[in-house]
Amino acid sequence: MAKNTSKHLLWIVPLLLILIAAGWIFYKFKNFEKPAIVDMDTDVIVPGQSKTAQLSSTVYIYNPNDMEAHVDSLNFKIYMDGQQYSTGRKTEGFTIKANETTAVSIPYTYDLEKFTKNFEKTQRDSSIYKIDGELFVDIWKFNSVRIPFSFEKNRPVFKALKPEIENVKLIKFGLKETIVELTVKMHNPNDIALSTEDISYSFVIEDNVLAEGSIPADKFFPKEGTNTITAPVTMNLKETIGEIGIFRKKYEGKDYSINLNTLIKTKSKDMQTMRLDIAKTGKVDELIETMKEKREENKKKKN
């Protein structure tokens, strides 16, 4: 009789332990509180000439449970003022520690062309940014739970500086050194002051870069104000095309593009340092005419 009791205990005890563990897991599962987004940061949107932009948002997810939650994947949609501009999926898993908030970075491709068309009509400096989606959470690897989420926040939208070329002047003409002085007036339409640093430029005709360099001086642009940038564009025509006659034959009737890019800084905590690209075009024929005039001036000086 004692032997039979011992045999029964051998399987009853493990079964009880399994039932207790299963009950504890079931209790934890039934009482599991959904993690939720409590805050969000996102890259400042800069309307421009590109059709898309590679942006990133950071969502802060709070886990109110006393056990960690492992997120297998995350699906999301990005909205601005109720309009959808991006959708995507984060497949790289992450863990939210118990009773803690975890920062999760979400990179995505943003429909910048669509946003620019819609936003420019509003003339506002901010927009309601919203992220909708769902988390797939493993609770102790026993079950995958779908947790929908939604969070919105008013975020700044940076309006690109509006450039206007005031003058393109030939300062010096020569095969080894030709200097074209570019004067650009730029208006800051934002309600916050901006400053630039590391302004660089390139002079391009049909994808051929004839000159590139940088402007060492930083510039300040008051809120809703204007400032002027003067860029000396230096070209070595001998290295790029050989002689002025070839320049005329090769590029006559074409357009040139002067590209400026710089870092934009503000004192706002919500608007981090960002890169701004500006491109303006002009007619090569206008430059050729000024080159002819400059060459004639040089001949007269020699005589």
What does the model show?
With 303 residues, the chain is α+β, with helices and mostly antiparallel strands. The protein has five helices and 16 strands. A hairpin with a 2-residue loop joins strand 3 (69-80) and strand 4. The radius of gyration is 31 Å and the shape is elongated.
Helix proportion range: 10-25%
Number of helices: 5
Give the percentage of residues in beta strands: over 45%
Number of E-type strands: 16
Spatial separation of the terminal alpha carbons: 131 Å
Shape: elongated
Mean pLDDT: 78
Concise account of the structure shown:
This protein is of the alpha+beta class and 303 residues long.
List its traits.
single chain; 22% helix; five-stranded antiparallel β-sheet; alpha+beta; elongated; 16 strands; 303 residues
Write the layout of secondary structure elements.
Layout: H1 2-30, E1 36-42, E2 52-62, E3 69-80, E4 83-90, E5 94-96, E6 101-111, H2 112-119, E7 126-139, E8 143-156, E9 162-172, E10 178-187, E11 194-205, E12 208-215, E13 219-221, E14 226-235, H3 237-240, H4 244-251, E15 255-265, E16 274-283, H5 284-302
Antiparallel strand pairs: 1-2, 2-6, 3-4, 3-5, 3-7, 7-8, 9-10, 10-14, 11-12, 11-13, 11-15, 15-16
